[in-house]
Amino acid sequence: MEHANPMLTGNSNPHRFITIGEIMLRLTPPNYEKIRMASSFEASYGGSEANIALALANLGIDSTFFTVVPDNSLGKSAVRMLRSNDVHCTPVILSTPEQTPTHRLGTYYLEAGYGIRASKVIYDRKNSAITEYDFSSYDFDALLDGFTWLHLSGITPALGNNCREMILQCLRKAKEKGITTSFDGNFRSTLWTWEDSRDFCTECLPYVDVLFGIEPYHLWRDEADHSRGDVKDGIPFQPSYEQQDEIFQVFAERYPNLKCIARHVRYAHSGSENSLKAYMWYEGHTFESKLFTFNILDRVGGGDAFASGLIYAMMNHYKPMDMANFAVASSALKHTIRGDANITDDAAAIRNLMNMNYDIKR
Q1: How far apart are the first and last CA of the chain?
Q2: Is 228:248 a contact under the CB 8 Å cutoff?
Q3: CA quadruple 96, 183, 341, 5: dihedral, nearest 10
Q4: Strand-strand pairing, 107-111 and 24-28
Q5: DSSP labels, 46-101
Q6: Do 37 and 29 contact (CB within 8 A), yes or no?
Q7: Widest CA span of the chain, in angstroms?
Q8: Would you give the distance in Å from CA 29 to the centre of its chain?
C-alpha cells in the first residue's frame, strides 16, 4: 500500500527516535589554516550520535538526544544548539562537579584538509562529563519508554567502562521493548584497540536490527575470518559487489536478527574531491547505489549523514534501491555544509540530488 510522504503532506511521522552519545566542542582554524598557524578558531558542536539526531530533526523526525554535559556555559551552549535544531534534550543531564569531578565538555580540533593535504583531528575528550558519570542507578527503562527507534555507535563505549555498560543496557532494554535498534561500529583507534572494539561490538550484535559499517574489527571473532577482512594495511578496502555480497550473506546467516546492513565506500581523489557509493543488504538481497562525485567543503560527519539518510528512508518506507541512493545523496550533500551534521531541512533537496521522482515508496 502506498503512503503519502509526511514531509509533503504535513502528517507527522509515527517514529520517535532517540540516540545516546557524547557531544563535543569543535574548534577549527578558519580558511583551511593549519592548527600551528591559527590565531583564531571557529567554534561549533558535534559528535556522531548528535549529528544523526540533528539530521533527522531537520527532516521532520521526532528526535531526542541523551548525553551528559557539564552544568556550565559550554554544556548549556551545546544543548542550546541542539534545541535550536528541534532536537529534544529533556533527558540531557547537566552534571555538577560532585557528579563528574573534572567537569568538562569533550573537545576536538579539526584541521580541514585541502587539495592533496588531508584533514587532521586532535581529540581532547579524556575525563569528559559523560565518561565520569555513574549510570549504575539510572533508569534506562524510563529513558527509552515511548520511543520506536534507538541509535548507538561504537564511539561511546570506547570512552570508558561506564559507557560500555550503559550501551549494552540500552540495547537490552530496547530489545525487551520492541524498539528498532541501529548501530554504527565507528572504530576510533585513538580511543581503544582494534581487538577491544571488535570484541565489544560483537557482543552488541545480537541486539541490533540495522547495522552500519561492517569493518571486521568488531564483527569477526575467529581468526579464520580476519584474513578476509575489510581493512588491509590500515587502508579501507574497496570491495567489489561480489565481495561485499559474500560478506553481507555471512553476517546475515550469523546474526538472523539483522534486518538491514549498510556501508558506504569512499574513493578519495584528493582532500577536496571524493566519490561515494553504498552497498546495502536488505530482505535477502544486496543493493549497490549510484556513485556520487563531489567537492568537499567539510568532510566531518559524512558517515553520520549516510546513517541518518538511511534511517530516514527506512522510516518512510522507501524502496530498497532508493534507500541506498538517498543515504549516499545525504552524505554527499553533507560534504557541502560546514559543521558536523547534515542540517538539510528539506528531503526533496536530497531526492533531487539522486534524480528521483516523488513516487519513491515501496
Answers
A1: 8
A2: no
A3: -120
A4: parallel
A5: E-HHHHHHHHHHHTT-EEEEE-EEESSHHHHHHHHHHHHTT-B-TT-EEE-TTTST
A6: yes
A7: 58
A8: 24
- AA identity, residue 213: G
- Reading the block at residue 237, the C-alpha cell is 578496502
Q: Which grid cell is 235?
A: 587502508
Grid coordinates representing 197 are 572494539
Distances 147 to 11, 118, 189 between C-alpha atoms, Å? 18, 39, 32
Per-residue tens of pLDDT for the chain, all 362 residues:
233 344 333 446 799 999 999 999 999 999 999 999 999 999 999 999 999 999 999 999 999 999 999 999 999 999 999 999 999 999 999 999 999 999 999 999 999 988 888 889 999 999 999 999 999 999 999 999 999 999 999 999 999 999 999 999 999 999 999 999 999 988 887 788 878 888 888 899 999 999 998 654 344 444 444 434 445 433 346 888 998 898 888 889 989 999 999 999 998 888 889 999 999 999 999 999 999 999 999 989 999 999 999 999 999 999 999 999 999 999 999 999 999 999 999 999 999 998 754 444 43
Residue type, 114: Y
